[in-house]
Amino acid sequence: MELAEARQKFIETWGKLGSEWGINRTMAQVHALLLIAPEALTTEEVMEALSISRGNANMTLRDLINWGLVEKQHKPGERKEYFFAEKDAWTIARQVAQERKKRELDPLLKVLNELSEVKGNEKDAEYKTFKTSVKGITKLSANVNKTLETMIKAEESWFWGSILKIFK
Amino acid sequence: MELAEARQKFIETWGKLGSEWGINRTMAQVHALLLIAPEALTTEEVMEALSISRGNANMTLRDLINWGLVEKQHKPGERKEYFFAEKDAWTIARQVAQERKKRELDPLLKVLNELSEVKGNEKDAEYKTFKTSVKGITKLSANVNKTLETMIKAEESWFWGSILKIFK
DNA sequence: ATTAATTTTCAATAATTTTTGAAAGTTTAA
DNA sequence: TTAAACTTTCAAAAATTATTGAAAATTAAT
Questions:
Q1: Quick check: B134 pLDDT over 90?
Q2: For a Cys-Cys bond, which of A25, B96, B137, B158 suits A15, CB 3.0-4.6 Å?
Q3: Which residue, B63, B85, B107, sits at the end of a domain?
């Protein structure tokens, strides 16, 4: 496969993967484009490469910055802003884990905690089933939470080394 | 909090979480409803409880069955079909992991493998960056893959016991 | 201060996804 | 069979989400 084709395929694949995980396709594609770009790109270049509008490029790049996956760069003597993606896969994974934990898991744990205090009658099947289900999900979530906390702090080699050693 | 309110909140929260993870909100809500239902429910009851149409309920329940999260039940002497959700959180997590691995990670690994064979010039910065990025993602994906394979086969207590022991 | 370059905003539009509901299909029992 | 009970399908409609593009805002050099 030629480089140009491979780059296209990578961008497309990353975009599809993103959309399957609740991330807007274009955002994932811009991320992919920057991931395989040796140098920081301008908004103009991103627009051009993916055939998207200025507004879309601007908002998408802003979102990627908010996710901690992309940084602005300024070249001396130049007015334009350049955008550059973190390239290390482990750093990306940790960043995504951290953001999704903050946005989704932490609020979920809070709700589950509230729900665990529901009042009711121990003889009531609905009440019992509710409590049992919530408790099971809470326990699982707590384990995921601890694992993510560890991951977010960890070195890649230590983290996978530890996990894969057990599983061998 | 009263049971009725707590049940509503649980359904709403599960629906929101689902939509953040690329799962249609209604599908997650139907799942939530069945998760906290002590008995299997009919299509009619699902429609009623969530105010959704028959067509929607039917398709959503079919999808949940395809995900391995819900089963059909038949009550003796009754014509209607009843739907019942697997209640164990670990079993649910494994089932979701298995399906998403099959639908998303396995195809991704296949593409990454193809992309690793891209032809090009070692002196070309675009080529080098591409190869490096793809290699990094491939390595991470392989580790996730092995972890999921282990998880899919594992007993809950062994899995978390092993992981959390390392991280303590 | 003025202007030209660049970035940001956001109402309007387009695209996509989800839902509806009625018709068609299927199953079971009389 | 017939018919009632129930399930499935799917084209059309509704709802949601993403994108555009031009105007407004900002920035920096003259």
A1: yes
A2: A25
A3: B85
Residues B93 and B144 in one domain: yes
User: What is the least distance, in Å, from the CA of B7 to any CA of chain A?
Assistant: 7
State whether A40 and A110 are in the same domain.
no
Sequence-distant contacts of A64-72: CB under 8 A, at least 24 apart: A64/A27, A64/A30, A64/A31, A64/A34, A67/A95, A67/A96, A67/A99, A68/A95, A68/A98, A68/A99, A69/A31, A69/A95, A69/A96, A70/A31, A70/A34
pLDDT confidence of residue A98: 97
- Domain end among B69, B85, B101: B85
Contact A38 B128 (CB under 8 A): yes
- Model pLDDT, residue A72: 97
Give the gap in angstroms from C-alpha A46 to the nearest C-alpha of chain B.
15
How many domains does one find in chain B?
2
How far lies B143's CA from each of A15, A163, B98, B146, B147, in Å? 21, 9, 15, 5, 6
Domain that holds residue B119: 89-167
Chain segment A104-159, per-residue pLDDT in tens: 999 999 999 999 999 999 999 999 999 999 999 999 999 999 999 999 999 999 99
pLDDT tens per residue, range B51-73: 999 999 999 999 999 999 999 99
Q: Tell me: pLDDT of A49 over 90.
A: yes
Backbone angles phi, psi at A101, to 5 degrees: -60, -50
| B134 vs A113: CA distance, rounded Å | 41
Q: Is the pLDDT of residue B167 over 90?
A: no
B94 and B75 share a domain? no
Q: Which residue is nearest to nucleotide C20 (CA to C1')?
A: B53
